[in-house]
Specification:
By secondary structure, the chain is mainly alpha-helical. It has one domain. Helix content is 85%, strand content 0%. Helix 1 runs parallel beside helix 3 and helix 4 runs antiparallel to helix 5. The longest helix has 27 residues. The two termini are 30 Å apart. 34% of the residues are buried.
Length: 117
């Protein structure tokens, strides 16, 4: 339980750092999407490691729930999409939603495939 809390704290700090770096370079609502896609890559990697075996069974709780749960943010992504749509950029909001879901799935599959291989 303590490991999950520490991992969660680290995940939240990393989310802020990555989000801030992406916003400085690219701007717009894509920062949260980048964070979430990276989180999907990490989640796929965690599952790949479990599939391959030889990792502690508490890895999903610590890395998955703790770090990645705090690193990614569904609510932030939803707010970004709603704000983009409310600003009159409905096509951009749709692209954000569709792009995030597709990129997240591809990242998770890639993370799994690379680690489980």
């Amino acid at each position: 339980m303590i490991g999950v809390a520490i991992a969660g704290a680290l995940g939240a700090v990393c989310r802020v750092l990555v989000d801030s770096a992406v916003r400085r370079r690219a701007g717009g609502p894509w920062a949260v999407a980048v964070v979430n896609v990276l989180g999907c890559l990490g989640a796929g990697s965690v599952l790949g490691a479990l599939f391959r075996g030889g990792v502690p069974l508490d890895l999903p709780a610590t890395a998955g729930t703790g770090f990645l749960g705090a690193f990614t943010t569904f609510s932030g992504w939803t707010v970004e999409a709603l704000q983009t749509a409310a600003a009159g950029r409905r096509a951009g909001a749709a692209a954000l939603v569709a792009g995030s879901v597709i990129a997240g799935l591809v990242a998770a599959v890639l993370g799994f495939a690379v680690v489980a291989a």
